[in-house]
Amino acid sequence: MLEIQRLSVAEAAILLEGARLKATELAIPMCTAVTDESGHLITFERMDGGKISSISIAIDKAFTGAVARKGTHVYNQLCVPGKGTFGIHVTNGGHFSIIGGGLPVTVNGAIVGGVGVSSGTADEDLIVAEAAVAWFRERTGFAE
Amino acid sequence: MLEIQRLSVAEAAILLEGARLKATELAIPMCTAVTDESGHLITFERMDGGKISSISIAIDKAFTGAVARKGTHVYNQLCVPGKGTFGIHVTNGGHFSIIGGGLPVTVNGAIVGGVGVSSGTADEDLIVAEAAVAWFRERTGFAE
Amino acid sequence: MLEIQRLSVAEAAILLEGARLKATELAIPMCTAVTDESGHLITFERMDGGKISSISIAIDKAFTGAVARKGTHVYNQLCVPGKGTFGIHVTNGGHFSIIGGGLPVTVNGAIVGGVGVSSGTADEDLIVAEAAVAWFRERTGFAE
Amino acid sequence: MLEIQRLSVAEAAILLEGARLKATELAIPMCTAVTDESGHLITFERMDGGKISSISIAIDKAFTGAVARKGTHVYNQLCVPGKGTFGIHVTNGGHFSIIGGGLPVTVNGAIVGGVGVSSGTADEDLIVAEAAVAWFRERTGFAE
What we know:
By secondary structure, chain A is an alpha+beta fold. The first copy, chain A, has helices at residues 9-26, 53-67, 72-78, 122-140, and strands at 2-6, 31-36, 41-46, 102-107, 110-118. A 4-stranded antiparallel sheet of chain A has the order 3-2-5-4.
């Protein structure tokens, strides 16, 4: 039997809070999704003004961060025509995101969930996702 | 009437075993899929630690190897913007894989199935797929 | 942090073996899928003669057993026009199965995975799925 | 290694011809599809006046006849709310047809392909599909 650690909804809410704080600071209303370690949605929030097209993108980013185990911005740089990973953006029924702003959430080296942010540029989305994870560490005290 | 040769489930299990042995040697837990010559799944295994996003990718790689009759890494190099094959990665309902790690399995010049491996880099996946086919040849004695 | 128990690939293989033994006894070549507790595929096998249309049905049954937490035959009787659950068979992108032969796999009261069997009648599929779970209990000693 | 028998394109054309002859006799322009034993399309024809919505239905009927190994009209009667097989009509990505007019094509007891007819009523479609198979037997001499 495998023993898996998984974000609780209370912990997922902390990630959402961290994203909201940073998005507010940047004045960019964001869509933020948090999934468990298997890529299934735990919590989601579209701030007033967040893009409708970003709802599914944020969810796909969190999914990808959790199950593919790398930031979506990393896959963005691997998924370039002529490189071996090109094509991964159309897998998993189109749910594999290669746009920055999706991150795995780790605790003591194990992935326990994923966070995905969308509505800004890919760089802005990534900044907010990183802030969400930093807030999660600060509030919970969990090590990477 | 056409006469077709097709992997049995026992032969598919040998391919799976070959992939498992190589993946264990490389210490990369893999998803491995084996399809018949028509691209339909015969057997699949996600090793402990294999990526969830690699489940469908491995299946798609095996499908593509069997039915498009080339290694998926070959299509990766053909499917580049400006080349004539660009766009093939979004065909077949998104199931045409152009990421290395999918191979046709041939016996006496005829394709009898496909094998697909995913969870490492495209190069690692291809190494494991090749090892699966080599193990299949060694254990069955079938010629290419 | 939630603590989750999940089938290992070795334990999933025991479920597959149990299905294979019963299917062989009944002389019905089956498709059998085993998923983890989140519904993601761990292992799959189509016996020689198993139906091609049953590949995805077996996977969907295992998914449903694991994540909807009831046997798919239970949903079959709930999903009847005029009853409140009617319509659930078209949810989850069409992957929610209401055909008997999908079961949750529990250990000490917690769902650790799902098993799905297809190629016979719904009743035959359920018999084989139950045999798979019984074999799993016998070989592992895990309580329900 | 499994030895499979599969319709050649010449034999598939005979099935199409049989359907065309009967459809002409009935004065119902039909869509007719012929697949191989794995459910993959070999040949298709929409007669002048055949319904556009019947293109995919005919293909799905032929697929189902071949891979689920029963006439689609048989599944129609099994797939009734409260019966164990209810729900099968939404499986296989919606490609499992339960509307009469799809039949397996057998030779010496083995399924070698499928034929699907659509544009009339389910009963008319089945009559034409049966005529296609009868024509195939008459012209080829193959036993059931």
